Amino acid sequence: MKRSFSLALAWTLAIALISPFLIQAQEPKQPAPPQQTTASPLTNKDVVEMLKSGLSADIVIAKIRTSQNNFDTSPAALSDLKAGNVPEAVILEMVKGPTETTQTASTPATDVTVTVPDGTEIEIQLTNNASGEELKVGDVVDFTLVRPVLVNGVTVFEKDAAARARITTAKRAGHWGKAGKLEWAMQDVMSVDGNRVSSRFTQRQVGDSKGGTVAVAAVATTVLLGPLGLLWGLKKGKPSIIAAGNRYSVFVNGDTKIKGKASAEALKAQ
Q: How distant, in Å, are the alpha carbons of 18, 256, 261, 269 from that of 114?
């Protein structure tokens, strides 16, 4: 009898000990709440990696405009970006910062598609010095817009937007007073919807040439002094150099539809 009682007591204690574990095992586990992740601000390294992955400068610029960023725009960092072959249009977008490239809630704007007429004027300025001593045919010359362009109250081109031309003629200054020559043809302008709009304009710059005077002096001196007169021919003409900041007017090439930004005031006026 005592043995049966002891066995019953032992079973009772064993069940009491393992019951909590059995109940816990039977209870379904609640799924963990999803973790909310926030995108990290873009850095200089992110921009370089995007370009190295094969993304175009236009796509990188669009990403910069729609993302938070933490760019290092110190002179040393900008020099490193330039040395790393980062396009100047991308560097310019990084320097501008989020206050100029992202739309804020306090100044809402609505996307409105408008037709930009052929011949719409756009004022641009040269980003860097352009020299016939350094550039070659096919090189790209970078510009930025001086002021925004609006059509019926809708912004279609923003201030500081990128524009491009392509070198068609580049000659270094030569001997006998032969001047350098630099010629480019306008290519396109970046619109607010991220597309490049064809534009037309050809700018030609010819250096200060004294070729006629030098040539005549060389011939005359050669007759009088013999071969020593040929030293005159070693005089070089001036190179063709166009300073950064020079402004030009270019024009939209053909009627073009652009999804622009219209303020509430502009929408009311329509």
A: 75, 8, 10, 15
